[in-house]
Amino acid sequence: FFDEFQMLDLVVTDGRCGGLVAYEIARGELHLFRAKAVLLATGGFGRIYKVTSNAHALTGDGVAVAWRCGVPLEDMEFFQFHPTGIYKLGILLSEAARGEGAVLLNGRGERFMERYAPTLKDLAPRDLISRCMYLEIREGRGIGGKDYLHLDFRHLGKEVIDQKLPDITEFVRVYLGLDPTREPVPIQPTAHYAMGGIPTNTDGQVIVNERAEPLWGLYAAGECACVSVHGANRLGTNSLVDILVFGRRAGRHMARYLRDAELPPVHGDPASRVRREIEALLARDQGEPVARLRDELQQEMMDNVGVFRTAAGLQHALEKIAELRERYGRARINDHGRRFNTDLLEALEMGFLLDLAEATAAAALHRTESRGGHFREDFPRRDDAAWLKHTLLYRGPDGRHEFRYRPVVITRFHPKERTY
Length: 420
Prior knowledge:
By secondary structure, the chain is of the alpha+beta class. 34% of the residues lie in helices and 20% in strands. The chain has 12 helices and 15 strands. The protein has a 4-stranded antiparallel sheet with strand order 6-9-8-7. A 3-stranded antiparallel sheet has the order 1-2-3, with helices on one face. Helix 1 packs across helix 11 and helix 9 (290-304) runs antiparallel to helix 10 (311-328). The radius of gyration is 22 Å and the shape is globular. The model has no long low-confidence stretch (mean pLDDT 95).
């Protein structure tokens, strides 16, 4: 274990991964870790959004690094929003609350889901409820005309709340200072899970094209990977499949691979690109703070690449991201020291966030239909004839995007239109 080390780049030579470059936070030094195989298990990238259930560390470093090294990203347009995040904070109040009978209310005190999904009501799928919440807010039925709604536990009674939902209601008490047995809880949709990411096969090997050819020695598992067990819309708890099933398969395949693999050669200075980026940030004492750029990016993604999407909004987002990238090249940090420089690390993470925001917006603009977690107001219907396929997004050296496609493998269950 190398605690307080942060991965910043991969070593890829002649179609093989031979290690990684990491920054030692305690000493401010770069290290080359040579390896026959590397497995990325770096989680998702919900921090491209302003309101997210993801931890502060989920800035998508592993996904962005792979993209920078020529690996395509798969199905980046599909991002799941969970309907019941604590207002402004995004901390998740899980389906267990609605499973026990908590209900969603608008500013008029109405159970509005009865209008949209009369059969399932408050237990409809996450993406559908999130869209309905935004429609209620857009039409002026938010709480007090604001941009949030209520999750109401009060009718369940104190005994049920305290015995069956102790963790959920404790979040409310700690972070909002409210008693859910007496007061409704302010909520809003929160960016929750990336269905897309680094493409892999069922053994966790990272693949680099539509023919599923692997980049030898590189593996990925968990939310950073796209195997794709979730398709366009993850079901609750299926993230455990990503972790436990495909994490195990990746580890077993790596063990077999290591028996015969040779340690790949290293050419030149693999840390040179990262070193230049770090030194430029440390040397720059003029410019706007990186934190301001991050706030603008997260707000833009929330506004135009969130629950509802349109061509105009997505194009605006891509233009904004390009502007932020240009400003990022001149931005400054306040701490110019070498030891435990978290200001520097957050600035490096901002570069990864820009990459992943760009990939998400570009993929969402490219897919001219609505499917699962991706909803285009200008293309509200699903189009299986044109879009029943996975997207692979490449970024060329000139920054241009190239899309290729992988077929969707259908076995027992054929896709059908969802009706509730």
